[in-house]
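Work Package 3 (structural annotation) set out to generate three-dimensional models for the target panel prioritized at the project kickoff. During this period the team completed the workflow that converts sequence records into discrete structure tokens, so that structures can be stored uniformly alongside our sequence database. As a representative example, we reproduce one entry of 591 residues exactly as it appears in the project archive.
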Amino acid sequence: MHSESLLINALYYLVAAVIAVPLFKKLGLGSILGYLFAGVILGPHALGLVHDPDEVLHFAEYGVILLLFIIGLELAPDKLWNMRGEIAFVGGSQLVLSAALLFGFFVLIGTGVSQSVVLGLTLGLSSTAFAIQLMNEEHILASPLGRKGFSILLLQDLAVIPILLLLGLVAQASNDGEQLAWYWGVLAVLAMLALSRYGLNQFLTIVAGTRNREVMTAASLLIVIGVAVLMDEVGLSMGLGAFLAGIMLANSDFRHQLESDIEPFKGILLGLFFIAVGMTLNLDLLFANPIPLLLAAIGLMAIKTLVIVGILKWGQVSYKESFQLALMLSQGGEFAFVILGQAAQLSFLPAELSDQIILVVGLSMALTSPVVVLHRRLFRCRSDHQPDQDAHWDDNEPEVIIAGFGRFGQVVGRMLTSQHIPFTAMDKNPEHVEFVRKFGNKLFFGDLTRLDMLVSAGIQHARTLVVAVDSIEESLKIIDQARELNPEINIVARAIDRFHAYELHARKVGSVIREMFPSSLEAATSTLRSLGYTEGQALEMGDRFRQYDEALLQKSVEHRDDMDELLILAKEGRKELEQLFEKDKNDPVSA
């Protein structure tokens, strides 16, 4: 009976999400608001189809844990160091100033000092998922303005962990209870760092050696959930554990593979988390006090907007662009639900105050998209703002992706490295990945025949794809999928044999490199020189043969599936080539 109830609830979640999310995205209000609305409709304060949202919320919090893990994966130490100035000044000052103003407000209305500190920091956070989506829709994500916005969001993501730790500390101070000694948390973190340095990569190499995708996915989930549970057992946040696990693996050979394996689970559970939050929104409280709560949401947005505008103006950004970005970051964030949920579990905040603040955050999310759209239409920010295409918010986006890093791919990679051209190389052989990286090559484990792996590798932003895999079928599948994701990408492909070359030319691949042809042609010209031909004669004959063979190859492409026609063309080609060289031999000019 219980399992039947779970299935019915799951059906409700799926139906509500499939209807609400596309509708809200169509209206320009974003998927998060769609999930929240779906939860409100399903919850006990509306249709009442789901009666125990807290149980769902507890399970769905794993979506936030997986989100923190993926954020950690993106925060490689070198990337953080390169963005340190903008992160520290723009991001840090935004959070500190917003939190200080909100702290003052809560103190004025009679909230305790420790509660006011936590609430100020919590409401100072914006929604990363919400803001990134808005910046992308407004075409500023790849611009210097978008980079400043990303710095603010990045600092906020980093700040979530200290805020959760602070909440745990002040909650312990205000509640009696037996807690583990503080040094257990320190030992757990040190153990994690040692494990990442000496064990995780080796463990993943062994698992990847099974060539079983399901086992690799299970290993990815084991790492995230295992570390999160470890942190929870020693009295720290599960989110902290997942975040640290991500940072530990940010420079791993398996970073892209892990991200692709975790992403579907994160998306589903995060959507379920927002649905659960929507179900817990106290609509009775909203209907009882609609004006004060709406004014509180507008006040929150106004405070954060003014703070961000002031910081950006100090950084010589125009008022129009400052307001454009500030409005996108003015809402409360999804981590407010996590922090307030944990505060409620620890009895740190009164239940009514917690419910009111959750409503204010939800209302601020609901208001953000319409306000951004209104600002765009009034000031036409989107039309006259041209993003700087050379300034990516993510410094790890490659210009070139190399699929397959055997001898062929390595030569390409070495040439690119000599010219300081960034690239990402992937190979699906874990032993080969481990061996090649010992020589300083930038190589990741991953199978680029998977659409999600291509996305994770950065195919949508890359300029060139080099396909150097050993399998004809895999080569063609990679090319077809890459073209779907990035129709303008330049493709350089290794042709294993003549039939493979036919298929590549049929797909309009810009550069088809027949792996044996250039070296065989060089061997032929050397043979001619050894037989008494001059170097000039040998090179000219080799060049003429290359041109003729390339023309014959192009002519044969349309008949690639007709073996009889190919045999006829091959015979005719040999005869024409003999006649061509015979003519040159008898030509007194060439003689």
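The longest strand covers residues 490-495.
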